[in-house]
């Protein structure tokens, strides 16, 4: 008896496996558009398994693809006769719609929708069926009816997505905002959902829709999540001062954490909105006693002031650093501040010896291996600044050995290569860069590849490598924070080695230094020359993108910026700037971005 049972199971499994294989073959035909072949197999499977709902649904679809609407109707009605299902009635209506018999189709759609009066638990399934057939207005009708039938449930997220598909952005925003009120914990997912529909341009129509709806909500119900959403919108527009107003309002309601305000200050700082960043950092200092936040704010304020300081102001900044160490001590808690001060002394006060003495004192603290490596990395940078290349290489190599394969070790390896390049040892630099091309840090990998290409493209130009050595010297001057000297040396290089392979690199480097020193017209001229003379060169997309950015930001010529972004879209689809250029172009054109 037991043996017969196992034989039965074996046969059953064999039949099931065979059916599955046959169904997979039918599906393969269907996906390739071979509907007649798929139809034959599915008809066979439907006869073999008459209770299989899936096979009959597939047959309906195939008959519709083949425009055999009478046959699909017959199958649909046979399903409905067994047991009424509103989704199947929608299928019947759609079958009539495919024949352009809209009155018949609408009658069946209305029947399915009316079914929800007595069976509201079918609302979601019916709406989803309409969405499946792209009958989005009908799906909206169902969800709107649900507001009356099931007020305890919320379908605003579904409505928002449908309105987004229809391009009705105002209604989409309205429903997303309704959903935030219903489920505030989902606010971050809503931000992600709407981020593609707004731009940096505050006058963009979609931005105005969202801003208007949020302001109305704040007036009606000043809940914290409306301030958060409005702040988020202002951040997308890079209106950091306006975002700060919202964040202050939030902080007054929830003074437990400064995290959001600190993040906003850092964002404004990174985006070079120094005036707003200073305002926010000073606010942080006024309202908190948290040592980490206080030290970070003081450090950021000093770094902002340093950027535009004259020699007299540098002395004041120096005294401010010393005052902070007097107040908070030179200990493990103030290590970031110590690193910032060491960099300030070396690169801005031009006193590398004082910087080195100070940082070596920091090394005597009770530090982790990574903290010690950070100090040694800066000490090595200062040695490069002084052109003490061999001593710098010792420090970099120590970091590599002590923290193998860590991000800071990879950074140290890159600096070994860069230092070797500065001193003219191009072969050794190139050997280090080959290893770094596969770095886990994408930034280091990209920088390594760029430097390797620079060396390999130019080191064989002549046996003395004069042009490459001059370029490396200019690069070192830029690192030493001597942009005017670097610009002057690049001028000499461009005159002495006109037309050689390094010319495009020299023009591009000089353009960036012109931007740094706010000589924007000269930067524009360099980029234009690059585009004219090296339109097929490796830096062509860089020149187009940086010129577009120059027009958009420094020169306030958005129409010219748009033209150069557009060239990237049509000529340089493989460029690393392609995605950002497309976003900028569409923003300047006034599109809503979706």
UniProtKB/TrEMBL annotation:
<dbReference type="InterPro" id="IPR011990">
    <property type="entry name" value="TPR-like_helical_dom_sf"/>
</dbReference>
<dbReference type="InterPro" id="IPR019734">
    <property type="entry name" value="TPR_rpt"/>
</dbReference>
<dbReference type="Pfam" id="PF13174">
    <property type="entry name" value="TPR_6"/>
</dbReference>
<keyword id="KW-0732">Signal</keyword>
<feature type="signal peptide">
    <location>
        <begin position="1"/>
        <end position="19"/>
    </location>
</feature>
<protein>
    <submittedName>
        <fullName>Tetratricopeptide repeat protein</fullName>
    </submittedName>
</protein>
